[in-house]
């Protein structure tokens, strides 16, 4: 009680504590946000409280807990790092964090971290500095070090403590992948000591009571540690002892560093500095002792924070957060019944990401075979989750109960939204829209999933164009995060709000763009693919082409991408957009693609494209039969613009120029959505942060300079757009602040 | 003629002296008593116009024994047979006077999947009596009874034997799916070569047996784990649970010593001794109970082996009749079965919370308040579960948030609650507990002189059931039968149909029934060919 008054007097807003018997319960709560972050304020108050707890003789131990039901600490405050101008400043931030956690670690009064909800980044480093960790077994409780995804490293002792806690391989896995670890896995790894089950309804709401229960258990643990009922030195199992022994051999450790480094280099092509710095910091700590380790960590953290890669990745993070919000407001009616037309790869994929979100989903196809294939796809998606134990077989069955497969339009009178994913043919789309509008209720939204047909052309057949919208999903729908929503000038705001709401429910990152041939994503990709075809015609081997594109940072090479998208689709799009945009979209000869389609080389789905795909075989060989095709359309390369680097920039500059033009023409709402769309939908190199961030970092003038050089050889394919020229002229102009 | 003679004989059955005295005093003081009740109770009868009165005539059970003890070598239907024979013996019921027999069970013995049929044939009931088996986890015998009530209400039957049996000393343990698949393929194999190749495909992994699942199918959570979480959700402490467990054992011991558990029949187990008493009642001390470690959630859980119900073998049986029939046959019924409710809720977080949801509902149906009830018998799956339900009933917040009620109904008064022990101490043979609860309510009403009783049970399968997918719940309203009143009383005498007409109607029904009852009577059941 006394402490309550005291805490009131000091007017702390983020951290408070109360003494229960002899245990100090330290509660964190950032009143300004939904999540707790280790901001300056939070850290300062924490140090204050920690000093008081240490000085308080009535306190024997402490429990660290968040008062927010769904979040422990989501990480350090990124803005704090971004506010720094030099690497020295960031290094200092890191060292302050290290110092604070070192004090926690050496605290004479044991501190138990009671974790419910995300415990990430700085939050995890805080938790592992505590003597004991209790976590709820909730699905929301995840532990992890996602710093690497922001181009950083765990900079507050994480690289030093984790290897000791979970072993060298486990620590590398956590820090290099940045993946979230669920509570039960964390227990197995030794990251947390004890698990607490989430509770259901009782005398308080489940969330409130669960956190209370967690606190009760944590207090018991704290007392147990003090009266020596709980030992902090865990008895090591045989396997653990063997592992420790092996890791004690320097040769083995060196081998691990070598293997991990090689793997990182293979995966990242050396384009991402953070993983290498993580390895370096861990190595410094283990081989040269903690002092060097902590110093290396802080210095590397400082260095990384100043890299363009980190800047790009943080930009993507912010962009992603922004694209997970519905800027069109709450729709008038939530979509509860969704109907999907066409049970192909796309349609079934959309069903797959919808059916488990509490939306009743109708999947309609015209044939029994098509429908069964689609239903099987949805089942398989859920069953794979069951096999991985992320859901139970009961949850799978329960989810599937929300899916209705059918061949007719029965029940469409209850649909709140229809998404059509039928064949990309304007006439078919028109027929479908007429059929559907005859059976759906007036409020029902008609969304069309097309990758290139302008929405207004499709909407032309509609009797209520304000309810028509484009929803462009990316294949495979359950893996690709992006959803591109296309509005026409007639689409109503509520229709857009509703489409975004559905997309967000489906877990998508959403960009909303204006209507036009190819919208944004397809339009950017088309010139790049045209250039890729030209390169093939100029005699660049598909493997070489892939190597050059992945070497630039694309996750999938250009030739493989064409195969994945489908050569027929690519041909289709190239022809359509070629007609719409004229010679600017030229480059490679469309006939190359068309001939390939004629020969049955439609890409991965047909087993042959640029490559030959053998089921069950991971490696693929170049399709020997395309050589004849390429021979037929052979072009002579100009050595002036055919170096490896030139090839890369020829591909990328056309992509980027088109993106900038989309912004110039108002197709894009802003550069943030442009970057997000390019990275999440098309695999634009994440380390470059998207086409707009790339222009900012690389320099518009340098890019224009290169393009002019290519323009001389190839003409208007490489003519920079006006907005890009403006940026080139005035270096103070930037897309991102 | 013979049956008429039997009937008239049964008009004055041998009554035990205590009963006779009570009966006499009741008869004498009826009007006064009734008067007093009218003032204190919100309702004086629960009879509904146009609905037949249904009565519990008698209820018996075998002693409930810890699994693996004296019953170890029996089969489930042997236990059920014992209960049925006990019922026959106690009621002197003619073996052909029953219209239908229904049994409840949870873990089914595959050889006797319709255990009701095997047990009734084995107990010597007429082979003309159809019988079926029902299952609904821990409330299986409640379902058997309510099925019977339904049959009587629908005019299908007048005399029903309902019961339940559970035999945990032996449970079906299967070959693995792989092995079963191989064995079935072996059946179809035509050549020696095919057979040899199938046999050759058997690997070590094939030999791993498949035990009955210990977890809820839908949630993969064991019952005890769920109970522990439920207790935590309601803030039930370990101390509260241990105290309740100790109470249950202490009260059961007292009741056993005082001879109150008169529903227990003695049973000569073939090849073993005669058992006449439940063997799981073990009053201990709080210190002893406190020593136990949590059984499910370790190390901070509160549910232990001692505050949970244990694996039990046992069977029960009740005789349910329409009131007219019972009186016509000269029985003195023990209680009316008035109303019941089944409810279900979330199988994960509210698995064992049925009683909290069902009690207000059944009270509302009957138009009663908690105070009107004289006798409560709640199934004690876990002490923590009972305490959680009591707390839920006593919480306005819970009533408002989860039950859509304005106020709570309140928790039952402990001085009316499970006074003769409960499942924690007497044992809990899953399928048989429901009948024990109903019989106990009737016996307690008679003994304590109350009017209304209430039974509640959650369908929780203890630790070994793999069955429950929803938590359900059952409730019976019993009203003490005061014979003179019930024959001539204004509220109970609503019999617009003259007896003769009723009888002729019944004959028709009987005829109809013989037409439809093809499943079991189609062939003359002999012991050899009824294992279909």
List the topology elements.
The complex is a heterodimer of chains A (737) and B (532).
Chain A: H1 2-10, E1 15-20, E2 23-28, E3 37-38, H2 40-55, E4 61-66, E5 75-76, H3 78-82, H4 87-105, E6 111-115, E7 119-120, H5 122-129, E8 132-136, E9 142-144, H6 158-166, H7 168-177, E10 181-182, H8 183-189, E11 194-196, H9 206-226, H10 238-247, H11 250-268, H12 273-288, H13 290-305, H14 308-322, E12 337-341, H15 345-355, E13 360-364, H16 368-387, H17 393-400, E14 403-406, E15 417-420, H18 426-437, E16 445-448, H19 455-459, E17 468-473, E18 482-487, H20 493-505, E19 509-514, H21 521-537, H22 542-552, H23 558-565, H24 567-581, H25 590-598, E20 611-612, E21 621-622, H26 626-632, H27 644-664, H28 671-682, H29 691-698, H30 700-714, H31 722-729
Parallel strand pairs in A: 2-4, 3-5, 4-6, 6-8, 7-9, 8-11, 12-13, 12-15, 13-14, 15-16, 16-17, 18-19
Antiparallel strand pairs in A: 1-2, 9-10, 17-18, 20-21
Helix pairs in contact in A: 4-5, 4-13, 5-6, 6-7, 7-11, 11-12, 12-13, 14-28, 15-16, 16-17, 21-24, 21-27, 23-24, 24-25, 27-29, 27-30, 30-31
Chain B: H1 2-10, H2 17-40, E1 54-61, E2 65-66, H3 76-91, E3 100-104, H4 115-122, E4 131-134, H5 140-153, E5 159-166, H6 177-188, H7 192-200, H8 223-233, H9 238-257, E6 267-268, E7 274-275, H10 286-291, E8 312-322, H11 323-328, E9 335-337, H12 354-366, E10 375-378, H13 383-393, H14 396-402, H15 423-426, H16 433-448, E11 452-458, E12 473-474, E13 477-480, H17 483-488, H18 499-516, H19 518-521
Parallel strand pairs in B: 3-4, 3-5, 10-11
Antiparallel strand pairs in B: 1-8, 1-9, 2-8, 5-8, 6-7, 9-13, 11-12, 11-13
Helix pairs in contact in B: 3-4, 6-7, 8-13, 12-13
Protein name (chain B): Trifunctional enzyme subunit beta, mitochondrial
Subcellular location (chain B): Endoplasmic reticulum; Mitochondrion inner membrane; Mitochondrion outer membrane
Pfam families (chain B): Thiolase_C, Thiolase_N
């Amino acid at each position: 009680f006394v402490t309550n008054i005291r805490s009131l007097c000091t007017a702390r807003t983020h951290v408070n504590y109360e003494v229960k018997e002899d245990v100090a319960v330290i509660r964190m709560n950032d009143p300004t946000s939904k999540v707790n972050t280790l901001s300056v304020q939070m850290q300062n108050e924490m140090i204050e409280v920690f000093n008081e707890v240490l000085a308080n003789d009535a306190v024997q131990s402490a429990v660290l807990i968040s008062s927010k039901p769904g979040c422990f600490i989501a990480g350090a405050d990124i803005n704090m790092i971004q506010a720094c101008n030099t690497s020295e400043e960031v290094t200092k931030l890191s060292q302050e964090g290290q110092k604070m956690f070192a004090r926690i670690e050496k605290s004479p009064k044991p501190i138990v971290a009671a974790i419910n909800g995300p415990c990430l980044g700085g939050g995890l480093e805080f938790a592992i500095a505590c003597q004991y960790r209790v976590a709820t077994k909730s699905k929301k409780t995840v532990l992890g070090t996602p710093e690497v995804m922001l181009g950083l490293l765990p900079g507050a002792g994480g690289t030093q403590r984790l290897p000791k806690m979970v072993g060298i391989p486990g620590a590398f896995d956590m820090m290099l992948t940045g993946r979230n670890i669920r509570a039960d896995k964390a227990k197995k790894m030794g990251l947390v000591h004890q698990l607490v089950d989430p509770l259901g309804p009782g005398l308080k709401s489940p969330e409130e009571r669960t956190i209370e229960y967690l606190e009760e258990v944590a207090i018991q643990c704290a007392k147990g540690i003090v009266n020596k009922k709980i030992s902090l030195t865990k008895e090591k199992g045989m396997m653990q002892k063997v592992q420790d022994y092996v890791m004690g051999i320097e040769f083995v450790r060196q081998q691990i560093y070598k293997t991990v480094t090689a793997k990182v280099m293979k995966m990242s092509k050396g384009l991402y500095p953070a993983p290498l710095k993580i390895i370096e910091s861990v190595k410094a700590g283990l081989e040269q002792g903690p002092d060097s380790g902590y110093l290396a960590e802080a210095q590397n953290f400082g260095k990384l924070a100043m890299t363009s890669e980190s800047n790009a990745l943080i930009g993507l993070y912010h962009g992603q957060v922004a694209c997970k919000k519905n800027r069109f407001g709450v729709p008038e009616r939530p979509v509860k019944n969704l109907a999907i037309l066409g049970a192909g790869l796309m349609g079934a994929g959309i069903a797959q990401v919808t059916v488990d979100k509490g939306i009743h989903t109708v999947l309609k196809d015209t044939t029994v075979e098509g429908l069964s294939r689609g239903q099987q796809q949805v089942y398989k998606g859920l069953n794979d989750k069951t096999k991985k134990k992320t859901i139970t077989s009961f949850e799978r069955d329960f989810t599937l109960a929300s899916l209705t497969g059918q061949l007719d339009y029965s029940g469409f009178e209850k649909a709140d939204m229809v998404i059509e994913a039928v064949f990309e043919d304007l006439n078919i789309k028109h027929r479908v829209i007429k059929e559907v509008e005859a059976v759906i209720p007036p409020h029902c939204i008609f969304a069309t999933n097309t990758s290139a047909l302008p929405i207004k052309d499709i909407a032309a057949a509609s009797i209520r164009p304000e309810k028509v919208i484009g929803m462009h999903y990316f294949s495979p729908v359950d893996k690709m995060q992006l959803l591109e929503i296309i509005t026409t000038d007639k689409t109503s705001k509520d229709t857009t709000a509703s489409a975004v709401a559905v997309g967000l429910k489906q877990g998508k990152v959403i960009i909303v763009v204006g209507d036009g041939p190819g919208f944004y994503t397809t339009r950017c990709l088309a010139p790049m693919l045209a250039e890729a075809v030209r390169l093939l015609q100029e005699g660049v081997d598909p493997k070489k082409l892939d190597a050059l594109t992945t070497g630039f940072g694309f996750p999938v090479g250009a030739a493989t991408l064409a195969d994945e998208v489908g050569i027929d689709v690519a041909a289709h799009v190239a022809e359509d957009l070629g007609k719409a945009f004229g010679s600017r979209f030229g480059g490679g000869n469309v006939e190359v693609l068309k001939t390939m389609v004629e020969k049955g080389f439609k890409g991965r789905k047909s087993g042959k494209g640029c490559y030959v795909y053998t089921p069950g075989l991971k490696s693929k060989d170049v399709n020997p039969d395309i050589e004849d095709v390429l021979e037929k359309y052979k072009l002579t390369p100009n050595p002036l613009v055919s170096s490896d680097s030139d090839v890369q920039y020829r591909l990328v500059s056309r992509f980027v120029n088109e993106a900038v033009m989309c912004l110039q023409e108002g197709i894009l709402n802003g550069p943030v959505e442009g970057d997000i769309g390019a990275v999440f939908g098309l695999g634009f190199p994440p380390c470059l942060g998207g086409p707009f961030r790339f222009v900012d970092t690389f320099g518009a003038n340098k890019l224009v300079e290169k393009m002019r050089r290519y323009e001389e050889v190839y003409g208007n394919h490489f003519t920079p757009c006006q907005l890009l020229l403006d940026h080139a002229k005035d270096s103070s102009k930037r897309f991102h602040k | 003629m013979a049956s008429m003679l039997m009937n008239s004989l049964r008009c004055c059955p041998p009554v035990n002296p205590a009963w006779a005295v009570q009966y006499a005093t009741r008869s004498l003081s009826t009007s006064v008593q009734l008067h007093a009740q009218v003032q204190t109770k919100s309702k004086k009868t629960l009879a509904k116009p146009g609905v037949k009165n249904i009565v519990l005539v008698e209820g018996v059970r075998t002693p409930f024994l810890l699994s693996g003890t004296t019953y170890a070598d029996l089969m489930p239907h042997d236990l059920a047979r014992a209960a049925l024979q006990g019922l026959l013996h106690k009621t002197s019921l003619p073996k052909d006077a029953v219209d239908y027999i229904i049994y409840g069970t949870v873990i089914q013995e595959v050889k006797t999947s319709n255990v009701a049929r095997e047990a009734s044939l084995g107990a010597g009931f007429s082979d003309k009596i159809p019988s079926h088996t029902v299952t609904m986890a821990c409330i299986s015998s409640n379902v058997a009874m309510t099925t019977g009530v339904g049959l009587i209400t629908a005019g299908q039957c007048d005399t029903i034997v309902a019961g339940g049996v559970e035999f945990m000393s032996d449970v079906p343990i299967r070959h693995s799916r792989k092995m079963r698949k191989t064995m079935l393929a072996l059946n179809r194999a035509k050549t020696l070569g095919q057979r040899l190749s199938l046999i050759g495909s058997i690997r070590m992994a094939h030999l791993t047996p498949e035990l009955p699942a210990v977890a809820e199918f839908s949630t993969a959570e064991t019952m005890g784990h769920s109970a522990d979480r439920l207790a935590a959700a309601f803030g039930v402490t370990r101390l509260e649970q241990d105290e309740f467990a100790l109470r249950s054992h202490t009260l059961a011991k007292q009741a056993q010593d005082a001879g109150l558990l008169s529903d227990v029949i003695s049973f000569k187990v073939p090849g073993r001794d005669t058992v006449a008493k439940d063997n799981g009642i073990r009053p201990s001390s709080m210190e002893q109970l406190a020593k136990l470690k949590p059984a499910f959630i370790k190390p901070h859980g509160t549910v232990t082996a001692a505050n949970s119900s244990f694996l039990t073998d046992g069977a029960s049986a009740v005789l349910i009749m329409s009131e007219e029939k019972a009186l016509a046959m000269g029985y003195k019924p023990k209680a009316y079965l008035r109303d019941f409710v089944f409810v279900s809720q979330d199988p994960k977080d509210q698995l064992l919370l049925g009683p909290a949801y069902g009690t207000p509902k059944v009270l509302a149906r009957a138009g009663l308040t908690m105070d009107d009830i004289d006798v409560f018998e709640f199934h004690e799956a876990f002490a923590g579960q009972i305490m959680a339900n009591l707390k839920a009933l006593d919480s306005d917040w819970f009533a408002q948030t989860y039950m859509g009620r304005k106020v709570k109904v309140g928790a039952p008064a402990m001085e009316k609650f499970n006074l003769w022990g409960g499942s924690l101490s007497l044992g809990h043979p899953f399928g048989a507990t429901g009948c024990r609860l109903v019989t106990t309510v009737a016996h307690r009403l008679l003994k304590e002189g109350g009017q209304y009783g209430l039974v509640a049970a959650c369908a929780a399968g203890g630790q070994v059931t793999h069955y429950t997918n929803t938590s359900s719940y059952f409730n019976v309203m019993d009203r003490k039968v005061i014979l003179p009143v019930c024959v001539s009383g204004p509220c109970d005498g609503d019999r617009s149909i003259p007896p003769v007409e009723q009888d002729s109607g019944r004959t028709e029904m009987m005829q109809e029934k013989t037409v439809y009852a093809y499943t079991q009577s189609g062939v003359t059941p002999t012991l050899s060919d009824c294992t279909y």
